[in-house]
Amino acid sequence: MDAAQAFNGDHRRHLQESQQNRSAPQRAPMRSIHTSWICALAFTSWIVPTISQAMPALARQYNVSCVACHDAFPRLNAFGESFVANNFRMPNWRQTMMDLGDERLALPKSLPLAIRAQAFAQGREGKDIDPATGPTGNASSFDFQAPYLIKLLSSAPLSEHITFYFYAIFAEKGGNGETLIEDAWFRHDDVLGSGVGAQLGQFQISDLMFPREVRLTFQDFYAYRAAGITYDRGLILDRGLGPLEIAIGAVNGNGITQNFAIDSPGYRRPDQMFDNDSRKSLFGRVGFTAGGVNVGIFGLAGQQKSAAGFAGTVTGNRDTDKRILGLDLSGSLTPRTHWFAQGIWNEWRDFLDAEPQRDFDWFGGFVGVDHVHSDRWTFSLLYNYAEADDFRGTGTVFEGIKINSLSLASSYYFMRNLKGVIEVNADLLSKDPAGPPYVGHQTREHYLLIGFDAAY
C-alpha cells in the first residue's frame, strides 16, 4: 500500500467517525472525495509560516466539506495542515481553473471569496481611562458587539509554485466604515528549485509559533500583542532540513499602517515608502519534535521607537533596540485533546525617554488546551500571564503589560461553518492604586461573552 492509498483510507475513516459523532438524528451523506486530490495531503514537505483561518472558498473550489481540513473551525486538523504545507492547493488544482486554451494562464472557474463574521454580547468589568485624568465616563458593563468583525478572504494558486492569499477586515470591534488589509502575501514554494520557500507581503511574525487566527477562544494570545510581533511587512524564507524546520525573516518593524512620501526628487512623485529607515527587524525559528512534543525556538532582533510624553503615551523620536527569545511547545494528550504553551522573554533597551539609559526586561506567555468533544461541542482553556516588574513605578502605561487571566470557552456547532460560543474570563490580578497617573491595572477584566461565529 502506498502513502496516498494509506492517507485516503485515513481520510475516509475520519469522515465516517465525524458523521458518527454528530448528535443530530439525521445524517446527510458526505460527498464522495476524488482520489486525484487526496494525494496532496500525503505530502507535508516543509514548514509554512502563515496558517490560514477558515476558508470556505477552498471547500467550494475543491468540492469538499469543511471537516476535511478542520477538526472544528477554525482549528486545523492534520489534513488541513498538509494542505497548507502544499502551498494552499491540491495536486489537481489545474482542474479547478478555467480551460481557456492557454497553459500559461491560471484563472479560477469562480472568484475564490469567503466571508467570516462574528457577533457577540458581552458583560464585563472594564472601562475607558485617560492616564492623566482618570475615567472618561465611557463604561459599559453590558455591551452588544454586533457585528464584532466581518472579514473577506481569498486565496488562489497562480502558477505551479506561486500562491496568493489575503483577507480584509470590515467593521472590526465597532470601527464601522473602516477597511484594513491584514494578511496579504505571495508565496513561492520552491525558489530556483532549492527547496526553499519564500513569502513576501504582510503577515504575522507570531504565526511561526501559534497562529492567532485559528485559536478557538475569543481571548487572544496576549504576549504576541504586547511584544509587537503580530502584523508587519517583510519576507520569510523557510526550509526543512532533516528533522529540523528552519525559518528566517526580515520585516520593516513598523507594522502595516504607515507610509511616507518620497518628495525629494521633485513635486508629487507617485511612489511611497512603507518604512522610514533602512534597518529591519530580523527573526528566525527552529522547530523539531522530541518525544512526541513539538518544540520551537524563536529569536528576534530589531528596533522600535522610544516612548515619550506623559505616561509614555507619545511615540518618541529615538530608535531603540529590542530583543526577543521565545520557546513554544505543543502536543496531543489524546486524538481529540491538544495542548500548547508559549513563553516570550523581552528586552527593551533605552526604551523610555524619561530614563534613556535604562533597559527593561519582561516576560509573557500562555498555556492552552483544546478538546474537540464531538462534531457538535468543543471546550478550550487558555491561561495568559505576563509580568512587567521592571516598569513598576515608572508611571507609564507599560505597567499595564502585566496580565494574569484564565479563560474557559465552549462552542456548539450548529453546522460545520456556524457555531455559537460562550466564554468566561477570570482576572486573577488585583487592582492598582488610582492615579494620577492612571496606569497599570485600574480595573479587573472579568467578562462573560456569548455570540456567533460563522464562515461561508
Please sum up the structure shown.
Helices cover 9% and strands 46% of the residues. The protein has five helices and 22 strands.
- Over the alpha carbons, how many angstroms does the gyration radius reach? 23 Å
The overall pLDDT, averaged over residues, is 88
Shape: globular
Main β sheet profile: 16 strands, antiparallel, barrel
Number of strands: 22
Description:
It is a single chain. With 456 residues, this protein is mostly beta strands. It has one domain (3-455): Porin, CATH 2.40.160. It contains five helices and 22 strands. It has helices at residues 3-20, 35-38, 56-62, 78-85, 222-227; strands at 70-72, 75-76, 113-124, 127-130, 134-139, 142-157, 162-170, 179-188, 197-204, 231-241, 244-251, 260-261, 272-273, 281-290, 293-308, 314-334, 337-348, 360-372, 377-387, 403-415, 418-427, 447-455. The strands form four sheets. A 16-stranded antiparallel β-barrel has the order 3-6-7-8-9-10-11-14-15-16-17-18-19-20-21-22. The longest helix has 18 residues, at 3-20. It is globular and about 70 Å long.
Task: Give the SSE map.
Layout: H1 3-20, H2 35-38, H3 56-62, E1 70-72, E2 75-76, H4 78-85, E3 113-124, E4 127-130, E5 134-139, E6 142-157, E7 162-170, E8 179-188, E9 197-204, H5 222-227, E10 231-241, E11 244-251, E12 260-261, E13 272-273, E14 281-290, E15 293-308, E16 314-334, E17 337-348, E18 360-372, E19 377-387, E20 403-415, E21 418-427, E22 447-455
Antiparallel strand pairs: 1-2, 3-6, 3-22, 4-5, 6-7, 7-8, 8-9, 9-10, 10-11, 11-14, 12-13, 14-15, 15-16, 16-17, 17-18, 18-19, 19-20, 20-21, 21-22
Region (Disordered): 1-29
